[in-house]
Structures are given as C-alpha cells and as structure tokens.
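Hey, can you fold this one?
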Amino acid sequence: MFVFWRGRGKGKRNFGDRTMKLYDFDGMFDEKLSGYIRKNADKHKEREWEDIIPAMYARFGDTVIKSLGVSPNRYYAEMDDTTLVNCLRAHLKQNVAVSEFLCNAIESRNADELLIPLLSGTDDEIGYALNLLGASRAALPEYMRLIKDSASEDVKNTCVDYLKEYADDVKEEALANYYAGVEREYMLEILSRCVIKSEQIYEILLKEFKLADENLPMRASYLAAYGDERALPDLLDKIDGDGITFIEYQELKYAIESLGGSYEKERDFSSDPYYQAVKAHSISQADIFGELPDKK
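Sure. Predicted structure:
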C-alpha cells in the first residue's frame, strides 16, 4: 500500500476564476509540535509520545488557525467536492504537504468520479487516488488498465487487491488478458477469488499449478483460494514428490488443509537453507526466553 507523501512549501493556483491558496497544515503542526516537545521532552517516554502525537494531530484538526479564522477540518469541509479534488491536485503539483485533514475530507464525500482521472496522472496522483478510492466499483476498469500499463509493482499489486474484491465482475476481462498473455500471474490471482465457480477457471488454475516451477507456492495458493476440493489429489501428489523446498511444502500443506485434506508424512528439510534459517531463529528465541527467571 502507499504512504501519503509529505512535501513542503506554499503557493496559489487558479481554478477557473477562483484563486485557491494552499496551506501547509502539516508544517504548521510540526512547528507547534517541535516547540511542545522541547518544553516537555522529560515528561514522557518514547512509547508515550507515540500515542500523544497522533492525539495532538487530531486535536489540531479542530483548532482554529488565527490567520484563517477556521480550523483545518472546517477549511476543507466548506469546499465542494470538485474544489477538494482540485486542491489535492494543486498540493501535489506545487509540492505542498497533503495533510490527513484534506484526505479525510475527500474520503467523506462521494468523489469517486472526480478521483478516477488522477489514475492517469503523475505517480503521486495515482498513489493518492488509489488510497482514496480503495475498492471502488467505478474504478475497476482503470485498475485493470494500470495492471497492464503501470511500471510500478506496488501499483499493480494494489490494483489486484482491489480487483479481487470484485473478481466475478471482472472475470471476463481477466480471462481475456490471461489468454492474451497479459500479466498472467496477476490474472490468475484475480480469477482465483471468483465466488461463482466455473469449470473454465478451475481448469486454468489446475493447469498452471501443474506447469509451475518457481511459482509453485503462488499457484498452490490460488487453488486454495478458489476452494475446489477436486484439486486435492494433484496437491497431494506434488507435496509427496522429491525436490520440493520447505517453502513449497508449507504452501502446499496449507492448500491441502484449506481444501479439507491432510498430509502427515514426515519430510526431511534439514538441508534446505530457508528451513535452517527458520529453525535457527526458533532456537534463538527459545534461548532468549529460556533465560528468563520463572515467576514465583
């Protein structure tokens, strides 16, 4: 997922015949926070500051700024939907910090149609639009487009996560992309979340599982997500074969159990690097806690 980017600066931008002034509310808060911390540094421990600062930020949102005559929350609440989204665009273009107050105001509106054009914009605009739109049904076509067109794996993965929530709605396009060889792994992940079962989808997922090489754990997870227990014999056959890694074993065992099966045969992964790392970590944790005195 994306983290809202914070910049610095001030500026104005014209929207039609209206001049909008941009305010760096985060910068204002940081300035006040720095002064407060200097005066109260000895009063709170580091963990306490982690709770105090978010609470202070929330209160700041409802604090009237003397130079404006309104609080940050009220400032944005008085804007209409179009102005709010234009304000976000202006902040990003002029490198002015985008506060949570602006984002929260946009999220409180029905502004999906206004946000969707940002998905064709700059990297920053796409990042904010993805966060603000979330799993919006109206944005599904753009999410599918971004999976094909974006150079960012983060963007692709975020779009896939949203599309999986509407897998049945985008099934036909996902199938078309799969057959065309377009981002097949992502299409398989989306198809595996379809609730309305289809022999076509099952056969695709099973075929890709059988053909899997380095993608075996993911392909097994798709069968687990799809939930068709007919895949059990193939999963059991694969887990019982020679040459699987510890990671593959774990994912296969999970898939088998999620479909109602079980696999109890003991396997030796002592020479597997990942298994060795996991075991070493487990031993280390046991040593640490083993040194703690018993409570009396």
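The longest helix spans residues 273-290. Let me know if you want another pass with a different chain boundary.
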